[in-house]
């Protein structure tokens, strides 16, 4: 049931009297319908207006920027690479947040109360939690995929999308596994902050609820963060090892891609870490530890990640940036080196060994020159290799290009 509009702060207005009491009771009934608990201290009308403006900005630019990333990916063939496919998965989840979640919290902030009842609150909390975890797990999968590609003994095939598709399926199914339990009784979804957004119930201090929150924090924030730190730490160490043997152009290109991904991860954690900390404080701290302003700010930062990520893709990824400029000017993208790669620029840590049957080496002074098309002499040479035919393996950073 949607109750009539009433200010949640009228009880503090001068001359509130009986009217203020009635409005407060109405707001209390509305909140109890959603959460079964007393309403928290609400924001002032100005505070709700500021939150509504922020959510309007986040929803509008989040939708437009993520839609642009998806459109560029579909329009330009050069962008259809395994790594970019993982980025598109993140962009798709952010776009869905802008469509399925932000409009409802925006409308609630304009009215100062939740508008679509308990069922809508549960649906909103599930959708936002699900899509947020998809983004974070996708970043962890992206970092691990790049780490595995670099450590592979062979050059990665830019036409092979199996690992990228497997990572995307894993991130979405993993998120489902952690966001469905509150629908089945392990914790629950309910209002958060000033009551204009919904999420996991952070405040109920029961063993059932606390156990879920601890597991959610561990497996959906700490664990992915550990995978990200480990994978990119290994990549940075590998880049330092191969600086002396890889070309300057290759090193710059590879490091630029790495900086882009690391920046994306750091920005995402800056947006989500305050939300995780606020959730833990709500769970384990005193009941009134967080003010309404302190509780709504981390939620806005978390939603702001849907705006940040697409700008990282476009302005830090030269493939996306060139296609973006071509799209604005209605022209063909510049033929830069990054657009000539059918596959993504791949970091591969290879063990380079001199193969006997593919090597052309200078003959020793004491041996006779082999004549062309001489099978017997070739056989003799294969049975008498030079003393230096097994050099120590080198670690080389390889970029894979294909038209």
Automatic annotation (TrEMBL):
UniProt cross-references to Pfam families, sorted A to Z: 7tm_1 (PF00001)
Record-linked InterPro entries: GPCR_opsins (IPR050125), GPCR_Rhodpsn (IPR000276), GPCR_Rhodpsn_7TM (IPR017452), Peropsin (IPR002962)
Biased composition (Low complexity): 361-394
Gene Ontology cellular component terms for the protein in this record: membrane
SUPFAM superfamilies recorded: Family A G protein-coupled receptor-like (SSF81321)
Main location: membrane
This protein's record includes keyword Glycoprotein: yes
Region Disordered: start-end pairs: 353-394
GO-annotated biological processes: visual perception
Subcellular location: Membrane
Gene3D superfamilies tied to this protein: Rhodopsin 7-helix transmembrane proteins
Topological relation to the membrane, as annotated: Multi-pass membrane protein
Residue ranges of domain G-protein coupled receptors family 1 profile in the record: 65-313
Keywords: Disulfide bond, G-protein coupled receptor, Glycoprotein, Membrane, Receptor, Transducer, Transmembrane, Transmembrane helix
Membrane spanning residue stretches: 49-73, 85-110, 122-144, 164-184, 210-237, 257-275, 295-315
One function term, GO molecular function aspect: photoreceptor activity
PANTHER family cross-referenced by the UniProt entry: OPSIN (PTHR24240)
Family: Belongs to the G-protein coupled receptor 1 family.
Protein known as: Teleost multiple tissue opsin b
Organism: Seriola dumerili (Greater amberjack)
């Amino acid at each position: 049931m949607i109750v009539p509009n009433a200010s949640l702060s009228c009880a503090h207005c001068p001359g509130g009297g009986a009217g203020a009491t009635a409005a407060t009771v109405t707001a209390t009934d509305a909140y109890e319908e959603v959460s079964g608990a007393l309403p928290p201290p609400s924001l002032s009308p100005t505070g709700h207006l500021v939150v509504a403006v922020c959510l309007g900005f986040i929803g509008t630019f989040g939708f437009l920027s993520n839609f642009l990333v998806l459109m560029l990916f579909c329009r330009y063939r050069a962008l259809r690479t395994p790594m970019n496919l993982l980025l598109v998965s993140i962009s798709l989840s952010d776009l869905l947040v802008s469509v399925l979640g932000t409009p409802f919290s925006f409308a609630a902030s304009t009215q100062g109360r939740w508008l679509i009842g308990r069922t809508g609150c549960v649906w909103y909390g599930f959708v936002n939690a699900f899509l947020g975890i998809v983004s974070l797990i996708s970043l962890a999968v992206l970092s691990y995929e790049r780490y595995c590609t670099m450590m592979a003994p062979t050059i990665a095939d830019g036409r092979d999308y199996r690992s990228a598709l497997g990572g995307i399926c894993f991130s979405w199914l993993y998120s489902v596994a952690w966001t469905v339990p509150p629908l089945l009784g392990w914790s629950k979804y309910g209002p958060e902050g000033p009551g204009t957004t919904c999420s996991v119930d952070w405040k109920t201090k029961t063993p059932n609820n606390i156990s879920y929150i601890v597991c959610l924090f561990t497996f959906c924030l700490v664990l992915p963060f550990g995978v990200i730190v480990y994978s990119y730490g290994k990549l940075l160490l590998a880049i330092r090892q191969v600086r002396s043997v890889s070309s300057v152009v290759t090193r710059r290109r590879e490091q630029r891609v790495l900086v882009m991904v690391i920046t994306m991860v750091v920005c995402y954690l800056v947006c989500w870490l305050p939300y995780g900390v606020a959730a833990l404080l709500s769970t384990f701290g005193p009941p009134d530890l967080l003010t309404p302003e302190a509780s709504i700010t981390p939620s806005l930062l978390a939603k702001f990640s849907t705006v940040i990520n697409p700008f990282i893709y476009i302005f830090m990824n030269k493939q996306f940036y060139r296609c973006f400029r071509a799209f604005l000017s209605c022209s063909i993208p510049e033929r830069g080196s990054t657009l000539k790669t059918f596959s993504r620029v791949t970091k591969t840590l290879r063990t380079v060994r001199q193969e006997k049957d593919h090597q052309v080496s200078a003959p020793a002074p004491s041996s006779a020159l082999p004549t062309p098309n001489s099978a017997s002499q070739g056989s003799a040479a294969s049975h008498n290799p030079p003393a230096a035919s097994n050099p120590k393996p080198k670690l080389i950073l390889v970029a894979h290009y294909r038209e």
